[in-house]
């Protein structure tokens, strides 16, 4: 059994005012590429942390710099080959070598204030599913002594913070009101989680080999895995220089790189607002599982009505009905259950078009807040988040809601197929 506690939904506020009985062991993974001066500044700031030094481990991972960086005694240095922008692989390498109970990821040019580790480690030490993001502020630190206190040097040379990010944290109450698209506010340059949860979710996707996107993909996967997302505004780390989005806004190459990142994420994050409006994604947002049907006609009506309401879903049917649906690639038979945000379990064939509104609302709402499951007649709509928490803790940590609906009783062997297709039934 995992140590610690869980909270309903995303209610990290229930842990306000609670501190770990003992400071956790923290491993700081710092990703570096040809930034010796910036790395020196970050390592100097880590030596000034209020978190106990004997419970802090620092691992620097160099992403193939021509010359290895210099690190002081007591800092572990790992290196990987220069094969593109491999921050994802570098973070995974550092995490695999880490021994702390809590992982804190920093970039070499992101300098933490003295209380950073203490504040970042609190929630993951209490609730192992907590994924926390600090406040990344921006300043011009060039030319300053590397040991200049960043809590003074940062405000003195402050540069603008991204307004969209500040708005996102404000409107979500520091991610307390997180939803399926809150992955956008998780930044790997100032990220923390328990090592247990990182290993459970799996590391960053190492197929990301250009700047950006790997942190959002990981954060979305973590969300589906039951993460409790929290922004910790008083855990401040200063990025040396402006935000990436604030540089060279008219540069076509930078805009093209952002488009490439967005295109890559459409397949990895198939939720509405991130996927295409008409095109299908390689990833699965809603997976439907039909348990049984009394006849081919009943199976047809059931699957057809489900896909009419949820056209981006995929459906698994019993093998005896597979031949009915060979023309539609959304329908499969057997095989592993896909990783999806929502699982719709249909134990017996039903016709759902008469409850289209209720079904869509259930699919959109589960996994957000404290709602994990909706029972719509015989149909069960279950969120991946609720299922993940249930597996870990052996109990329900999300609410289940039963909704009265116009769903028909399970279909008989003669479902009135001609009337259904012709529209007179």
UniProtKB/TrEMBL annotation:
GO terms for molecular function: glycosyltransferase activity. InterPro entries: Galactosyl_T_C, Glyco_trans_2-like, Nucleotide-diphossugar_trans. Residues 183-226 form the Galactosyltransferase C-terminal domain. Residues 27-140 form the Glycosyltransferase 2-like domain. The keyword Transferase applies. Pathway: Cell wall biogenesis; cell wall polysaccharide biosynthesis. It comes from the Bacteria. The keyword Transport does not apply. Keywords: Glycosyltransferase, Transferase. Belongs to the glycosyltransferase 2 family. This is GT2 family glycosyltransferase.
């Amino acid at each position: 059994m995992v140590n610690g506690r869980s909270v309903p939904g995303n209610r990290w506020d229930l842990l306000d005012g609670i501190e770990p009985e003992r400071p956790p062991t923290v491993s700081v993974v710092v990703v570096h590429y040809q930034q010796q001066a910036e790395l020196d500044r970050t390592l100097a700031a880590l030596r000034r942390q209020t978190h106990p030094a004997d419970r802090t481990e620092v691992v620097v991972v160099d992403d193939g710099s021509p010359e290895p960086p210099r690190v002081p005694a007591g800092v572990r240095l790992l290196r990987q080959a220069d094969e593109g922008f491999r921050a994802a692989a570098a973070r995974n390498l550092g995490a695999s070598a880490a021994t702390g109970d809590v992982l804190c990821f920093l970039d070499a040019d992101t300098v933490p204030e003295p209380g950073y580790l203490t504040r970042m480690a609190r929630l993951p030490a209490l609730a192992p599913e907590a994924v926390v993001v600090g406040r990344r502020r921006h300043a011009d630190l060039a030319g300053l002594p590397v040991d200049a206190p960043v809590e003074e040097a940062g405000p003195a040379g402050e540069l603008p913070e991204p307004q969209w990010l500040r708005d996102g944290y404000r409107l979500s109450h520091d991610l307390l009101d997180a939803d399926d698209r809150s992955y956008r506010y998780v930044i790997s340059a100032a990220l923390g989680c328990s090592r247990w949860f990182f290993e459970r979710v799996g590391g960053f996707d190492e197929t990301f080999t250009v700047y950006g996107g790997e942190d959002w993909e990981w954060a979305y996967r973590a969300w589906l895995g039951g993460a409790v997302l929290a922004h910790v505004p008083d855990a401040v780390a200063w990025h040396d220089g402006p935000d990436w989005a604030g540089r060279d806004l008219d540069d076509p190459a930078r805009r093209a790189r952002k488009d490439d990142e967005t295109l890559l994420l459409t397949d990895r994050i198939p939720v509405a607002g991130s996927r295409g409006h008409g095109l299908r994604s390689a990833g699965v947002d809603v997976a439907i599982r039909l348990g049984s049907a009394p006849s081919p006609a009943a199976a047809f009506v059931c699957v057809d009505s489900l896909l009419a309401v949820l056209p981006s879903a995929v459906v698994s049917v019993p093998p005896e009905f597979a031949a009915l649906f060979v023309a539609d690639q959304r329908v499969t038979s057997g095989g592993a259950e896909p990783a999806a945000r929502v699982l719709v379990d249909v134990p017996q064939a039903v016709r759902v078009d008469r409850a289209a509104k209720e079904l869509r609302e259930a699919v959109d709402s589960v996994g957000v807040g404290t709602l994990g499951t909706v029972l719509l007649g015989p149909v069960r709509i279950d969120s991946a988040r609720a299922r993940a928490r249930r597996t870990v803790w052996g109990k329900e940590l999300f609410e289940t809601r039963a909704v009265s609906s116009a769903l028909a009783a399970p279909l008989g062997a003669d479902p009135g197929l001609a009337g259904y297709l012709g529209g007179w039934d």
